[in-house]
Write a structure and sequence with these properties.
Elements (H helix, E strand, L loop, with lengths): L6 E5 L4 H12 L3 E6 L2 H11 L2 E4 L5 H15 L4 E4 L10 E2 L2 E2 L2 H26 L11 E6 L3 H4 L5 H21 L4 E8 L5 H4 L3 H8 L11 H13 L7 E4 L9
Parallel strand pairs: 1-2, 1-4, 2-3, 4-7, 7-8, 8-9
Antiparallel strand pairs: 5-6
Helix pairs in contact: 1-9, 3-4, 4-6
Length: 253
């Protein structure tokens, strides 16, 4: 899909992977709606790239609907949705203070898995009504999972479950939406230098990077964004989950 002049939505777009993706989309000529709970950061980025900031709680049906409407009002119905909104908690099932809080587990599932599905269902409903582009394509959705879906570590039960759900729904949704000319793909990043890991001491970052075969460093959000751009551009990619992890296949030491 040629992005110039097309409307795009990026959830979790105010920072990290989402911000890098929003910048690349805008650089390709897309009209970008930066959807995030952090409206201050979203507004700053939207101003930088010539897009629009939209407040959105992806886990809430009404908030998601309002965000889709606001984005369409600014730029027209989106042909691209990139779901980057997500959270995580590091808690053992049986911790020092007792069992893993059910509310914590529910929250992660609600934002990461249900939030991804919520925005996908709303955006693709509007995409399905658009006139097809050359080749019959109407839109592209890129979701964000994690290598934790496959190689989850101790303390990642909720996070791994949420990301595993995203992996699991990618193919059936892609098959269903193929009739509308809408492609659905997922990126499963490894260890990336996002605000979450960036808050760790440098020694901790170096320790995580040492587990990566090559290159021996944390991933850059720009590398995630570059893969997203390729997925959008390549019409024969559909229903795939692509690990972006520099061959990380085991627990960090």
């Amino acid at each position: 899909m040629q992005l110039k002049g097309q409307a795009a939505i990026v959830t979790g777009g105010a920072s990290g992977l989402g911000a890098a993706t929003a910048r690349k989309l805008a650089a390709q000529g897309a009209k970008v709606a930066v959807c995030d709970l952090n409206t201050k950061l979203a507004e700053e980025l939207a101003k930088e790239i010539g897009g629009v900031a939209v407040a959105c709680d992806v886990s809430d049906a009404a908030s998601g609907e309002a965000a889709i409407v606001a984005a369409a009002k600014a730029h027209g119905p989106a042909r691209v949705l990139v779901n980057c909104a997500g959270i995580g908690v590091a808690k053992r099932v049986i911790g020092r203070e007792g069992p893993h809080g059910l509310a914590d587990f529910n929250k992660v599932i609600s934002v990461n898995l249900i939030g991804t599905f919520n925005m996908l269902r709303l955006a693709t409903t509007e995409m399905s009504k658009l006139e097809p582009l050359a080749g019959g394509e109407r839109g592209v959705v890129i979701n964000t999972a994690s290598v934790a879906a496959y190689d989850g570590q101790i303390g990642q039960a909720a996070y791994s479950a949420s990301k595993g759900g995203i992996v699991g729904m990618t193919l059936p949704i892609a098959r269903e939406l193929a009739q509308f000319g809408i492609r659905v793909l997922t990126i499963a990043p490894g260890l990336f230098l996002t605000p979450l890991l960036g808050a760790l001491p440098q020694a901790a970052q170096d320790s995580l990077a040492s587990a990566i075969p090559f290159p021996h460093r944390l991933g850059s959000p720009d590398e995630y964004a570059s893969l997203a751009m390729h997925m959008i551009d390549n019409p024969y990619l559909n229903g795939e989950v692509v690990r972006l992890d520099a061959s990380l296949r085991m627990a960090p030491k």
